[in-house]
Specification:
Blueprint lengths: L12 E7 L13 H20 L3 E7 L12 E11 L3 E12 L4 E14 L17 H27 L7 E2 L2 E2 L8 E2 L2 E2 L1
Antiparallel strand pairs: 1-3, 2-5, 3-4, 4-5, 6-7, 8-9
């Protein structure tokens, strides 16, 4: 395990700060959400790749909620950390804060979680170094990441069940006993 305070001990964390400029605005004059998603993905990639010491790709993104708008002229900081490792994957949490440079106010505008997969030179998943939290905050993040991983698996199971074909004689969860066949609405097959 790396010694605390060394560059190697901190390779699981990354901070990136960017000034939001007029070319990043949407029609409402705020920073476009797609721009923020692009930077979120870049910082998650960089954090995961630096930690794993190999190329990493985005598998999924969870809980992207834009709590407040980000304004042109604000300084936006993306703080990322590896919260949990699996065999070939990592959860990277990203916290977004904005600073109004004139009024010197700081706001937490977004947090989300990326599942990143490490790839070898042949493009196949490779093992990542296990993450061992050192602080109470890192242990809390790891515990929360493990719970999110369980929830993702549960959502995957439920989604597979939803995709199963529905019997034709079932409409809105009830069997058709009228003998009229499937319901039709506005000329669209039921």
């Amino acid at each position: 395990m790396a010694e605390p305070g060394t560059a190697d001990a901190d390779r699981h964390r990354l901070s990136m700060t960017i000034l939001m400029t007029p070319d990043m605005s949407n029609f409402a004059g705020n920073v476009h959400g797609g721009i923020l998603l692009k930077y979120l993905d870049q910082v998650a990639y960089t954090c995961a790749t630096r930690y794993a010491r190999t190329y990493a790709v985005t598998l999924s993104v969870d809980q992207v909620v834009f709590r407040e708008p980000v304004h042109v002229g604000e300084l936006v900081t993306f703080d990322a950390s590896v919260n949990r490792t699996g065999r070939t994957s990592m959860e990277v949490g990203v916290r977004v804060t904005t600073q109004d440079l004139v009024h010197q106010t700081v706001r937490h505008t977004n947090s989300c979680y990326f599942t990143m997969v490490a790839l070898g030179p042949d493009g196949r998943p490779v093992q990542v170094p296990p993450w061992h939290p050192r602080t109470a905050d890192e242990r809390r993040r790891q515990f929360a990441a493990e719970r999110r991983s369980e929830l993702r698996r549960e959502i995957d199971r439920t989604t597979r069940g939803i995709k199963q074909p529905v019997p034709e004689d079932t409409v809105a969860g009830q069997k058709d006993t009228s003998g009229a066949g499937p319901a039709r609405t506005h000329g669209v097959p039921g």
